[in-house]
Specification:
The chain has helices spanning 21-30, 74-78, 94-97, 99-110, 136-145, 162-176; strands at 7-14, 43-52, 55-64, 83-89, 119-124, 151-153. The chain is of the alpha/beta class and 180 residues long. A hairpin with a 2-residue loop joins strand 2 (43-52) and strand 3. The two termini are 25 Å apart.
Length: 180
């Protein structure tokens, strides 16, 4: 018997186009890597029920398009978010250069700062470590300097740390909500 969820958290994924947001989300939802994802138009969202520390939680996972032409939409989609994940590609330094713009857009949606709602920075494509263009140290320092709640790396292809990212942002949202 499936237990009903008692808690619902909206988690917003954001970052430049092509960094792997849709692929990462699909890997988490299905357990399968599909490298042929199409460009996200506007926003897509999915729901996944998980158990965290004995509590049944529903995650609303919002996959925001990374192209410039859609950025003006993001603040309205952030409203009601319990947390966010900024994703960049560790093999593409340019995917990190718009970080400040993305964080500012995210902040506009809830008219606060990143201390109010948990935001994680995540480096994708860890399976391509040999092509790394952004060091762990640089990404970690950027996350720390901007008061984000942590830095993780993952690979949607291998599945490394994929589940951990979703569990971490959920725990952080639960702590901010007083549930943990």
């Amino acid at each position: 018997m499936i237990k009903p969820s008692k808690f619902l958290f909206k988690i917003v994924f954001f970052g430049d186009g092509g960094v792997g947001k849709t692929t990462l989300i699909n890997r988490y939802l299905t357990g399968v890597f599909r490298g042929d994802s199409e460009i996200t138009i506007g926003v897509d969202f999915h729901v996944k029920k998980i158990d965290i520390d004995g509590k049944r939680v529903s995650l609303q996972i919002w996959d925001f398009a990374g192209e410039d032409r859609f950025r003006f939409l993001m603040p309205s989609y952030v409203v009601g978010a319990a947390g966010g994940i900024f994703l960049f590609d560790i093999t593409r330094y340019t995917s990190l250069k718009n970080f400040t713009d993305w964080i500012e857009i995210f902040k506009q949606g809830y008219k606060g700062d990143t201390n109010q709602y948990p935001v994680l920075m995540v480096g994708s494509k860890l399976d391509l470590e040999y092509k790394r263009a952004v060091s762990r140290e640089e990404a970690f320092e950027l996350a720390k300097k901007n008061n984000l709640f942590g830095y993780l790396e993952c690979s949607a292809k291998s599945g490394e740390n994929v589940k951990d990212i979703f569990e971490e942002i959920t725990r952080l949202a639960m702590m901010k909500s007083g549930l943990l």
